[in-house]
Write a structure and sequence with these properties.
Elements (H helix, E strand, L loop, with lengths): L2 H30 L2 H10 E6 L6 E2 L5 E13 L9 H8 L3 H14 L5 E7 L1 H10 L6 E11 L5 H4 L2 E3 L2 H6 L8 E3 L2 H5 L1 H4 L4 E7 L5 E4 L15 E2 L4 H10 L5 E7 L4 E8 L12 H10 L21 H11 L13 E4 L2 E4 L9 H6 L3 H12 L7 H14 L21 H8 L23 H12 L3 E3 L9 H4 L4 E3 L4 H17 L13 E7 L7 E8 L6 E7 L5 H18 L7 H9 L13 H4 L3
Parallel strand pairs: 2-10
Antiparallel strand pairs: 1-8, 2-3, 3-4, 3-5, 6-7, 8-9, 11-12, 11-19, 13-14, 15-16, 17-18, 18-19
Helix pairs in contact: 10-20, 12-14
Length: about 625
């Protein structure tokens, strides 16, 4: 081979080699490496998530409470973004520049190729301005979704709210992706899987300005969204509205239950807040304000807060004493404005003496129920006080105390009914005496109970020894219906009749007479709860009518001082409103007093009025 031929072969080889490299590179780019293909697709197609409307929420009479409104998210595909007028964009959206920059960096970290939410929950007026200018912003587009809208300005503790899903929630449930919304608390959280529906998708053809040119293959690969399921609550929203008015400028909670079904008729945590505050672009700022509010509007005082029950707990002591056979309805005890028990003095207010069980409840006599508690714990059929206390605690738990009883609220507290082991540790001995825990006899001491559980106690009395699982959503399927079960207490029915008679007398002429209603027999019990941090708390529970009760109710007002001052009158007004549909002229002045009372801005001053002191 001559020199020329050799050179020709070398050059030919180089050409083949270079050409081979190009072929391999093209193969890698077009077949192996997806980035260029993905880029081309992203420039010509857009996959939009189709968000379903969340299910609607109704009251027991099918009045619409929660529905949906159109809202808009500003989406961004970072790789397609070019230089844009930052000042114009933040002016349209009404946000600080720092927020825009921070969110853009977050979107870039998530993906430079995939669309993600830059600014969420844009309102109609801002959307209209933005839509006109959007052609100037390559890489940006609007995605439509729905947000919550409310027909009431209260009950946020019932409904809860929705927020953006967290990374940990995405890891637990693959149906969520970044930017999705999820129920954060209340019914929105408890019934998230029913309310959320199923997402769909739509593939669109777009030009280089992100303007839609049509559907990809006429929508052949589109998936429609499935709307979320509706909820029917057990609330009477008119009664709920009235209860919120009565609790305005007061701290506390109200729970009312229909005894025959376990349906919660009203649930009021006060002070509350307008649920619309946590919707829209201002939701973060509003949430911060609610968090910083010293009155704790975000705190659910009906199912999360726990309080000593006070004198309403005396009804349980009477029932256990009767069932254990240590007292009879005729058992009497003396009271001289208080009695001494092994050196410990239990105060009381002025009333007739001696008293039987009915009189003890009617007049809310403290020494009477210390004596009952003593007999229960010193019952000879038990080896010692510790063993008797264990049996007493078993009875107490049957009323639904010390446990979560409503399946509809994930923020429900169980409360606390101290165990024997707890007192063993506190007293450093197993050999303790009734005087060590004497305060439990009148619902004080270590007892901590939620207002929901207190309402369940009076439901048990109204039903003469049973309750159905309390619930605030009417179950629409077998799984949820199976959660509503009947609970029967191991206390004889006739003993509940004795307590009901005593509660009737308490309203007719005892500590609870302010709760009496025209043409309706109300059975109730007041409670004044000692509070080391300020004025005592006011509590009252009742049911009505006495025969075939339609409502059982608990009102708990923080710093209300006497059970008869706020708890009883508010409950009486609500019972009358629910059962008769109106407030009688006789109660108009009382209603005005309750509506105008302000215990937050103008706290009650402690009274030394002997008449008031005698109320409870």
């Amino acid at each position: 081979m001559n020199k020329f031929s050799h050179r020709k072969a070398v050059i030919s080889g180089l050409i083949v080699f270079v050409f081979g490299i190009y072929i391999i590179q093209l193969f890698k780019l077009q077949v192996i490496d997806e980035s260029y293909k993905l880029s081309a697709i992203n420039n010509s197609q857009r996959v939009e998530t189709q968000y379903p409307a969340r299910g609607l929420i109704y009251d027991r009479n099918h009045k619409l409470l929660v529905y949906n409104q159109a809202a808009y998210d500003l989406m961004v595909i970072p790789r397609q973004v070019k230089n844009f007028d930052t000042l114009e964009l933040i002016s349209i959206l009404g946000i600080p520049k720092e927020v825009l920059v921070k969110n853009m960096e977050k979107c870039k970290r998530y993906s430079r190729y995939k669309a993600s939410i830059l600014i969420s929950q844009i309102t109609d007026n801002k959307y209209a301005k933005l839509q006109e200018k959007l052609y100037k912003y390559p890489g940006f587009f609007i995605q439509t979704r729905t947000l919550r809208k409310y027909n009431v300005a209260h009950s946020a503790d019932v409904f809860g709210y929705i927020g953006e899903v967290s990374q940990s929630q995405i890891e637990k449930d693959s149906s969520y992706t970044s930017g999705d919304y999820i129920g954060v608390n209340g019914l929105e959280k408890s019934y998230e899987k029913i309310l959320r529906g199923t997402k769909g998708k739509r593939i669109l053809l777009v030009d280089n300005y992100n303007r839609i040119k049509g559907s990809y293959k006429n929508g052949e690969y589109d998936i429609p969204a499935v709307v979320g399921g509706d909820l029917t609550t057990t609330l009477d929203i008119d009664l709920q509205e009235y209860a919120y008015r009565l609790m305005q400028n007061k701290k506390g909670g109200i729970i009312a239950i229909e005894p025959s079904t376990g349906e919660i008729l009203l649930k009021v945590s006060s002070p509350g807040y307008d649920p619309q505050f946590l919707v829209g672009l201002e939701r973060s700022e509003n949430y911060r304000k609610l968090q910083q509010d010293p009155n704790l509007p975000l705190f659910d005082r009906t199912v999360t807060a726990t309080y000593p029950p006070g004198s309403i707990f005396k009804t349980i002591q009477g029932l256990i004493g009767l069932q254990e056979g240590v007292i009879t309805p005729a058992t009497q005890y003396e009271c001289h404005r208080g009695n001494s028990f092994n050196g410990q003095f239990m105060k009381c207010h002025g009333h007739a003496s001696p008293l039987d069980l009915k009189g003890g409840i009617q007049n809310s006599c403290n020494p009477y129920f210390v004596n009952v508690f003593r007999r229960i714990l010193e019952n000879n059929k038990y080896a010692n006080v510790r063993e008797a206390y264990g049996k007493w605690r078993d009875y107490v738990l049957e009323f639904g105390l010390g446990q979560r009883i409503c399946p509809d609220f994930m923020n429900e507290s169980s409360g606390s009914i101290p165990t024997q082991a707890y007192y063993d540790k506190v007293f450093r001995t197993h050999n303790w005496y009734y005087t060590y825990i004497m305060s439990l006899s009148i619902g004080q001491g270590e007892l901590l109970i939620t207002p929901l559980q207190m309402a369940n106690i009076v439901t048990c009395i109204a039903n003469r020894g049973s309750y159905l699982t309390p619930h605030i959503v009417r179950p629409a399927d077998p799984e949820h219906r199976a959660r509503i079960v009947r609970h029967d207490l191991n206390i004889r029915k006739e003993y509940f009749d004795v307590i009901a008679d005593a509660m009737e007398e308490a309203v007719k002429g005892g500590t609870a007479r302010v709760a009496a209603c025209d043409s309706v027999t109300v059975c109730g019990k007041t409670g004044t709860i000692q509070n080391p941090h300020g004025l005592d708390h006011s509590a009252f529970f009742a049911f009505a009518p006495k025969v075939n009760p339609k409502i059982a109710i608990l009102v708990y007002v923080e710093n209300g001082e006497w059970g008869s001052t706020y708890g009883a009158p508010i409950a009486g007004l609500l019972i009358e409103k629910y059962l008769t549909g109106k407030i009688s002229s006789r109660k108009m002045a009382l209603e005005k007093k309750m509506l105008e009372a302000d215990l937050i801005h103008t706290p009650v001053k402690k009274t030394t009025d002997k008449r008031e002191e005698a109320e409870d």
